[in-house]
Amino acid sequence: MEQLKTNWENIGLSNDFLFGKIMRKPALCKRMLEIILGVKIDRLEYLESQKSIDEEWDARSIRLDIYVQDNREVAYNIEIQTTNTGDLPKRSRYYQSVLDMQQLNKGERYKNLKRTYIIFICTFDLFRMGRHVYTFENQCREDGSLRLEDDTYKLFLNTEGVMDDVSTDLKAFLDYMGGRPSDHAFVKVLNDEVILAKHNKEWRREYMTLLMRDQENIDKGREQGLKEGREQGLEEGREQGEGRFAELTQRLLQDKRYIDLEKSATDPEYRQKLYEEYRIL
């Protein structure tokens, strides 16, 4: 429990739990999106934190750190990513498909699909090119000036960027998300919110509960893995043993050593000597 308390005191806005809680405030989320995208947003129609979406009974569910929609009916999914899992491009593809399915009712026309932005705020450089932002949209391979105009955008932000390729506002925000101090006005507001959040006993209890639940799931998974590993080892050992004995049986029959064969079936030590004699590994 003391370790959990320490974790709570040390987490920052790059923690997905805290990020989801603080960005529940529409004014903060709106300002963050304006800084990231360089656009003006009048208001957010709704704000959902860590929204779980289950498309079908047999489909994978996804948990979104932030899922919002503005007054222009543009949908934004913002997620914090502190570990390079190696699958972010494919995950962005899956997130896009699920969000699109959420937007259309059966029989509704495709033109009613909203513009969507899938945004990953990464504390590492996913593409290792030093940029602060990597923006992707669909375009023609044969003619790069031809855009598909399907209104889907995927952004991968990098807190460790080194290029002079973003606004001062966005640079300050990414520095803060990367754990570096800043005197930027919006960063100060965010930092005050983080400090205030640390005194929220309800959030702290919820965070600790989630951590303990995650640890329990990890422990269960480890135990299950060990059990399956033991079972697999036994099965492989059994198959290997059966294969060795089958080879020994064949060799003894070829040599007409019927007494040795009968004895090897009931005497493990004698059987081992025969394995060594015939060099059956």
What would a concise description of this structure say?
The protein is α/β, with parallel strands linked by helices.
Distinctive features:
elongated, six-stranded mixed sheet, single chain, 281 residues, alpha/beta, 9 helices
How would you summarize the topology of this molecule?
Layout: H1 2-10, H2 16-22, H3 26-37, E1 44-53, E2 62-70, E3 74-81, H4 88-103, E4 115-122, E5 133-136, E6 152-158, H5 168-177, H6 185-197, H7 201-254, H8 258-264, H9 268-278
Parallel strand pairs: 3-4, 4-6
Antiparallel strand pairs: 1-2, 2-3, 5-6
Strand order of the largest sheet: 1-2-3-4-6-5
Distance between the first and last residues' Cα: 51 Å
- Please tell me what the overall shape is: elongated
Q: What are the secondary-structure elements, in order, as H or E?
A: HHHEEEHEEEHHHHH
Estimate the strand proportion: 15-25%
**Share of residues in helices:** 40-55%
Helix segment tally: 9
Structural class: alpha/beta
The stretches of 5 or more residues where confidence is low (pLDDT under 50) are 55-61
Description:
With 281 residues, this protein is of the alpha/beta class. It folds into two domains: 2-199; 219-278. The protein is built from nine helices and six strands, in the order H-H-H-E-E-E-H-E-E-E-H-H-H-H-H. Strands 1-2-3-4-6-5 form a six-stranded mixed β-sheet, sandwiched between helices. The radius of gyration is 29 Å and the shape is elongated. The chain starts with a helix and ends with a helix. Mean pLDDT is 82; it is low at 55-61.
